[in-house]
TrEMBL record:
Pathway it works in: Lipid metabolism; fatty acid biosynthesis
Keyword Acyltransferase: yes
Presence of keyword tRNA-binding: no
EC number(s) reported in the record: 2.3.1.179
The family this protein is said to belong to: Belongs to the thiolase-like superfamily. Beta-ketoacyl-ACP synthases family.
Xref: SMART domains: PKS_KS
Domain Ketosynthase family 3 (KS3): 12-424
Entry GO MF terms: 3-oxoacyl-[acyl-carrier-protein] synthase activity
Name of the featured protein: Beta-ketoacyl-ACP synthase
Alphabetical list of SUPFAM superfamilies matching this protein: Thiolase-like
Pfam families: ketoacyl-synt, Ketoacyl-synt_C
UniProt cross-references to InterPro entries, sorted A to Z: Beta-ketoacyl_synthase, Ketoacyl_synth_AS, Ketoacyl_synth_C, Ketoacyl_synth_N, PKS_Beta-ketoAc_synthase_dom, Thiolase-like
Domain of life: Bacteria
Length: 427
């Protein structure tokens, strides 16, 4: 085939996916996670790794089969990312010797010192009251806290993953709330399109299930409090939804210039045809009431892909199970797809794995690509009481359908909206 065969209608390199790696509460790797997703099994359970006494929410989609000690978000995020990257690189047969031929784009949770470390620093001053900063400075100067400094320094997770897998250039560490994982993929796509690289390693990872995060989200009234039956707590698009359930995990995608991938004999798992983003300065946590930014992000992704709405076979929704988010997403889908919104299959992986925050966009992109490869749409479990105000075709049981093109939505606090169009073949 000619070189032009691996270009889109705008003359840009086609972006192929040649490797996928997954870690979720459903298991380690593509096979375990995909099997559980399509069978409708939940990974949400009672939290066992720390005491939840006194907490309003005591459940989460935790990754309990990997070491989670010490319970520090950057360290867990790094562990999940490394496992996902190893699987993706092995499948792509690229960079398995620590010599990945392109940059790293990694979405991580906001890196800040957590309560146990803050307490230890306060104790180091020898004061039970206000922190004695002179005493703290003396304690820090001894080198006793150097490891903490490295651990909580923003960008440390990216630096360690980059060193481990030998990615090129300065790694890009980003955090755009719940759209972060999708943003990491978008940055990889743009780097290849600009000709800056022929390949990119894109990761979304999050290990933030800890008491502090649960309390913060509870104060926002964002979390479900259905603790008695954890697997039934996350109910995206159901009329009786009452909030999201925290989850954790990671996904890694190896993106390549399609021409370069074919030239080296790689197996192409799918394509990223389009990316769309739209910022929304309406509120720190709420969406703009008119849904304009969400609508604009969806339309931008379709425009970038060169596709009409009719080309989308299914939507992998952001679908958090919060009353407002699901309503706003339904509004956006209805505005873009019109009458077809009532018959367009929509599913939410968060019903089974919870909301993996900065990892969500990457995990759901990976699930979308697996849906394309296997011709199966995973269900939205716990969808027993449809919300008539939404008017969507929610996939309550797995559907076997030819899936050629998926719209994957990611909408975050602070108006961070990113949508991806993933496909089996070029447009």
């Amino acid at each position: 085939m000619t070189a032009s065969a691996y270009r889109d209608a705008r003359g840009r390199p086609l972006i192929a996916v040649t490797g996928i790696g997954l870690v979720s509460s459903l298991g380690r790797g593509q096979a375990d996670t995909w099997a559980a997703l399509t069978e409708g099994r939940s990974g949400i359970r009672e939290i066992a790794r720390f005491s939840t006494e006194g907490l309003r929410t005591r459940i989460a989609g935790t990754v309990d089969f990997l070491d989670t000690d010490p319970l520090v978000a950057p360290l867990l995020s790094e562990r999940f990312a490394a496992v996902a990257a190893e699987e993706a690189l092995e499948q792509a047969s690229l960079g398995t010797k620590g010599d990945f031929p392109g940059p790293l784009f990694i979405a991580v949770p906001p890196v800040e010192m957590e309560w146990p470390q803050r307490r230890a620093l306060a104790e180091a001053t020898g004061s039970d009251g206000d922190v004695d900063y002179a005493g703290l400075l003396r304690a820090v100067s001894t080198g006793r806290f150097d490891a903490w400094h490295d651990l909580f320094l923003f960008g440390t997770v990216a630096e360690r993953i980059a060193e481990r897998f030998g990615t090129r250039g300065s790694p890009i560490s980003l955090s755009t709330a719940c759209s972060s994982g999708a943003t990491a993929i978008q940055l990889g796509v743009e780097a290849i399109r600009r000709g800056e690289a022929s390949a990119a390693l894109c990761i979304g990872t999050d290990g933030s299930v800890n008491p502090e995060s649960l309390i913060r989200f509870s104060l926002l009234s964002a979390l479900s409090t259905r603790n008695d039956v954890p697997e039934e707590a996350s109910r995206p698009f159901s009329k009786d939804r009452d909030g999201f359930v925290m989850g954790e995990g990671a996904a890694a995608l190896v993106l390549e210039d399609a021409g370069a991938a074919v030239a080296r004999g790689a197996t192409i798992l799918g394509y990223v045809l389009g990316c769309g983003e739209k910022g929304d300065g309406f509120h720190r946590t709420r969406s703009s009431p008119d849904g304009a930014p969400i609508i604009a992000a969806i339309r931008a992704s379709l425009d970038d892909a060169g596709l009409a709405p009719e080309a989308i076979d299914t939507v992998n929704a952001h679908g958090t199970s919060t009353p407002e988010n699901d309503r706003m997403e339904a509004m956006g889908i209805a505005a873009v797809f019109g009458e077809r919104a009532a018959s367009l299959p929509v599913t939410s992986n968060k019903s089974m794995i919870g909301h993996t925050l900065t990892a969500a966009g990457a995990i759901e992109a990976a699930a979308s690509l697996l849906s394309i490869r296997h011709g199966r749409i995973p269900p939205t479990i716990n969808y027993r009481t449809p919300d008539p105000a939404l008017g969507l075709d929610i996939v309550g049981e797995a559907r076997d359908l030819p899936v050629r093109t998926v719209l994957s939505n990611s909408f975050g606090f602070g108006g961070q909206n990113t949508c991806l169009v993933l496909a089996a073949e070029p447009a």
